[in-house]
Amino acid sequence: MDRSPHPHTDSFDGLGLPEEVLPVLARRGVRTPFPIQAATLPDALAGRDVLGRGRTGSGKTLAFGLAVLARTAGRRAEPRRPLALVLVPTRELAQQVTEALTPYAQAVRLRTATVVGGVPVRRQTQALERGAEIVVATPGRLADLVERGLCGLDAVAVTVLDEADRMADMGFLPTVTGFLEQVAEDGQTLLFSATLDRDVDRLARRFLKDPATHAVDPSAGVVSTMEHHVLHVRRADKDAAIAHIAARDGKVIMFTDTKGGADRLVEALLAKGVRAAALHGGKSQPQRTRTLEQFRAGQVAALVATDVAARGIHVDGLDLVVNLDPPADPKDYLHRGGRTARAGASGTVVTLVLPEQRRGAVRMMTTAGVTPVTTAVRAGDAELTRITGARVPTGVPVAIPDPVVERPRHHRPTSRSRYGRPASGGRGTSPRQHGS
């Protein structure tokens, strides 16, 4: 397996990108490639399969996106037969990828379509019917449309698997395998993942042909631009400590394990004067999109989220992530922390730990390759304020305007598909399974 067949580059000039793309990069302030882009773009633009390892926030989207655009520019898709496919694990990430690539796609006159669950299917099928060269999709909804004959994959010449490890965690790999068996046989595959666990490695070995492998900014590198803190709290004081952190001057994402827990915490924070909102798989896609917009705009200061929504959250300038309990899985810890310290910026990850959670938290952090600073705190402590910016909430109840509620249209289930799932419904309705 060739590990670095092309020299890395410190400029987008001379890579062979379409000339229309270069002024767009300059206008958007993208002047020099991030390491993952410099490493992978020469191989991807040359048509090689690429296996790229880099954590969220390392610049992967442009790394594969510019390659897809360059490899597809000048071609025109027939109705329902896209030429390039980008597969991602969650709706939020699909939206983020589409938004990131749209200015460049427009510059080279390529049409994009976003295919995700949780929103009405009609607009997506119309975009496919008109012809879209590039489709950004989550596996559940795409499998539905393929099964119903509304999207064919036989003309797909470039396939991207983004955050393949997360798709494996969510149980999507059998569906992804089904897609890879349908795309053009002589096509190009670009696989990006923060980790190369057994299932992802097996997928890469089966479908990537002599890939150029680049490990840039590996998952353990998440510690380099972050401060990691474990805060030992007493159970009786934990709720007050959470409220003080949430009332800080600046945005914060707080991670919890359940949808119900997120909703209950938001209700309590609003009552104490903290502008909070919940983001989880129980919300419709329009609600989730609107809540993220409110968070980015500053209408919401504290976002209480579950893991199902975590991978797609990208907010510039976010410098604090709080785990309300230690996550059981070290990968979840790294993915949550990846919401801050993006693209080389600095950030702080704080984990609240009760006495009975201390031993498990130490094991999890060790496995994650993280050495945190451990501090015992109580609400009102100067140390809590120093680490998190905590302050006493006003106590004056506040309300956040409800996100737009648009009920998704449901179509009738059809027979079971080749992917071993109902053709119309994804993998069921639980948030972990139906992240698409």
Description of the structure:
The protein is an alpha/beta fold and 436 residues long. The protein has two domains: 21-217, Rossmann fold; 222-388, Rossmann fold (3-Layer(aba) Sandwich), CATH 3.40.50.300. The chain is 36% helix and 15% strand. It has helices spanning 21-27, 35-45, 60-72, 91-107, 121-130, 139-147, 164-169, 173-180, 198-207, 235-246, 259-271, 285-297, 307-310, 330-337, 358-368, 382-388, and strands at 50-53, 84-87, 112-115, 134-137, 158-161, 188-193, 212-215, 226-232, 252-255, 276-279, 302-305, 320-323, 347-353, 373-376. The strands form two sheets. Strands 3-4-2-5-6-1-7 form a seven-stranded parallel β-sheet, with helices on both faces. It has a seven-stranded parallel β-sheet with strand order 10-11-9-12-13-8-14, with helices on both faces. Strand 12 (320-323), helix 14 (330-337) and strand 13 form a beta-alpha-beta unit. Helix 2 packs parallel to helix 3. The longest helix is centred in the first third of the chain and has 17 residues, at 91-107. It is globular. Mean pLDDT is 84; it is low at 1-7, 217-224, 406-417 and 420-436.
Task: Record the SSE blueprint.
Elements (H helix, E strand, L loop, with lengths): L20 H7 L7 H11 L4 E4 L6 H13 L11 E4 L3 H17 L4 E4 L5 H10 L3 E4 L1 H9 L10 E4 L2 H6 L3 H8 L7 E6 L4 H10 L4 E4 L10 E7 L2 H12 L5 E4 L3 H13 L4 E4 L5 H13 L4 E4 L1 H4 L9 E4 L6 H8 L9 E7 L4 H11 L4 E4 L5 H7 L48
Parallel strand pairs: 1-6, 1-7, 2-4, 2-5, 3-4, 5-6, 8-13, 8-14, 9-11, 9-12, 10-11, 12-13
Helix pairs in contact: 2-3, 3-4, 14-15
